[in-house]
Amino acid sequence: MSTSTNQNRKPVRILTAMPSDTNPDGDIFGGWLLGQMDLAAGAVTKRRAGGRTVTVAVEGFKFMAPVKVGDEVVIYADIKREGTTSMSVMVCTYALAGCTGVETKVCEAMYVFVHIGDDGRPLPLPVT
Ligand SMILES: CC(C)(COP(=O)(O)OP(=O)(O)OC[C@H]1O[C@@H](n2cnc3c(N)ncnc32)[C@H](O)[C@@H]1OP(=O)(O)O)[C@@H](O)C(=O)NCCC(=O)NCCS
User: Alpha-carbon dihedral of residues 17, 19, 24, 25, nearest 10 degrees?
Assistant: First the structure.
């Protein structure tokens, strides 16, 4: 189990894992985490593109440790690669249990987003 304090990084999203986010066994549902991470990556890519972006792929999703009800869920997202219209965003999620102050890495994945226009077709990223 890896841990990190991530003291100098700014999370994109911070949430609390609620009972409504569990699967039928009472554990936090992986699909909920995947969706929250998708929203985090989407926020970062929309800001970069200055317009609409969509998820085209999610690569290498790994769940390293469980998330418990009541955990604070902290999501970081960084653009690692830019193509003509696409961006690869590394999304790492940590769980903060109780008052320990220690973030435990619970999952990570590379999300690929594409900048699209009003017609839903790929649009080149603006030059920075
Ligand atoms: C995203 C979408 C517009 C791309 O259309 P497309 O016809 O595949 O476009 P292209 O083949 O020109 O590829 C566009 C870019 O996406 C990348 N790409 C396409 N499929 C990919 C995949 N499976 N994995 C990684 N990158 C991919 C291409 O490499 C290209 O990148 P670049 O411009 O930086 O070189 C289209 O696939 C789509 O609408 N998908 C559904 C998106 C969606 O609804 N997401 C939410 C799901 S609920």
Answer: 70
Q: Of ligand 1's atoms, which has the minimum distance to the CA of residue 87?
A: 34
Supply the pTM of this predicted model. Answer: 0.94
Strand partners, 74: 14, 94
- The C-alpha atoms of residue 11 and residue 28 are separated, in whole angstroms, by 20
pLDDT in tens, 68-88: 999 999 999 999 999 999 999
Q: Is the CB of 110 under 6 A from ligand 1?
A: no
Residue found by looking up tokens 């619970």 in the block:
106
Q: Whose CA is nearest to atom 18 of ligand 1?
A: 56
What pLDDT digit, counting tens, does each position of 84-114 carry?
Answer: 999 999 999 999 987 777 789 999 999 999 9
CA of 55 to the centre of ligand 1 (A): 8
- Ligand 1 centroid to residue 90 C-alpha, Å: 17
Atom of ligand 1 nearest to the CA of 86: 34
- The token pair at 14 is 């911070």
